[in-house]
Amino acid sequence: MADKRPRSTQHAVTRTEDIGGTSRRSVLKTIGASAVGVTALLPWTAQATDTWQRESIRIDYDDYDEPADVYDISDVRSNQAPVFDADPTDADNRVLSTTFDGSQKTANIGYDFTDHMTTDEVYSRIMYHPNDVTIADSGTLRFYWAGVRSGSNNSGVNGAPTGNDGWTNALSIAHRGNHDHPDGYTLSLYTYHMDQPSTSGEVFRSDGVVAVDQWNEIECYQRLNSYQNGTANADGIFRLWLDGELVFEKDDFRWVSESGQEADYVGPVGYWYMSDQQGQTMYYDEHEIVLGGMPWVR
């Protein structure tokens, strides 16, 4: 079980930084043990004179009356809209709550990047508590948008993305095959990318197991692939951590073939498939986002 960190007094956009005089790789080597595995994982090879910009965002639910004050709430299908509610493990703490009621989807709860910097690198962290959740055999429960670029081909309706018409990354928990961890479910990435083998997105299972009725720390990082003259290179990166441990990494994705295809938003969602989560609730807290790289300290 992940211990929840002390709540920050900061909210929304905390700061924008222009960082120069050394490479990103060199700077991150100075972070120390608190950033477990970061130095070895980051792909950057910037030169010593490089300067880049990074924007850090933290969302404190105590600063808002309702979720729509900070999130873009859309496609609400549940009879119960997302609300701020009491923490199931600490009644004095306020968290985001979303409940399945009358539909297989709750709602999209996205933090929109329209008013923020444009970047091909997005990191986000959120605490996730699936409350009394039971997933049927072969069932899947998607709970977090880890990056979405809206477009005609970001949902599988019109086939795989072609590089200029959207893409999607969704995190899910699933009950599959030899399910030998009854108190939790396998954490997976579901992504719409240019090389997916079918019309539907592709699933990549991680080595992590998300615990039910507990807080789980979820972190993810995406760097879009590079491209030249409309041709996408297979060097896009997605990494996923559970409770501070790297549980998934892939560095040859192709999502885009031109500029203007950066992420629109990240944020909670609820959607089940081949299961039935009616009446079940998911809680979220401590939502943090970094545009333009990784946080200084994880």
Corresponding CATH architecture: Sandwich
Largest sheet: 9 strands, antiparallel
N/C terminus separation: 17 Å
Q: Helices and strands: which structural class? A: mainly beta
Averaged pLDDT:
85
Helix/strand order: EHHEEEEEEEEEEEEEEEEE
The first-level CATH class is given as Mainly Beta
CATH topology category name = Jelly Rolls
Rg result: 19 Å
Number of beta-strand segments: 18
Number of domains: 1
What coarse outline follows from CA principal-axis ratios?
globular
The low-pLDDT segments are: 5-14, 21-49
Provide the helix percentage. Answer: under 10%
What oligomeric state do the depicted chains represent? single chain
Count of separate DSSP helical elements: 2
Please indicate the percent range of residues in DSSP E strands (runs of 2 or more): over 45%
Put the structure in a nutshell.
This protein is mainly beta and 298 residues long. It is 3% helix and 46% strand. It contains two helices and 18 strands.
Describe this structure in words.
By secondary structure, the protein is mainly beta. The chain has a single domain, classed as Jelly Rolls (Sandwich). It contains two helices and 18 strands. Strands 1, 2, 4, 5, 7, 12, 15, 16 and 18 form a nine-stranded antiparallel beta sheet that branches. It has a seven-stranded antiparallel beta sheet with strand order 3-6-17-8-9-10-11, with no helix packed on it. A two-stranded antiparallel ribbon has the order 13-14. It is globular, with a radius of gyration of 19 Å. It starts with 12 loop residues before the first strand and ends in a 7-residue tail after the last strand.
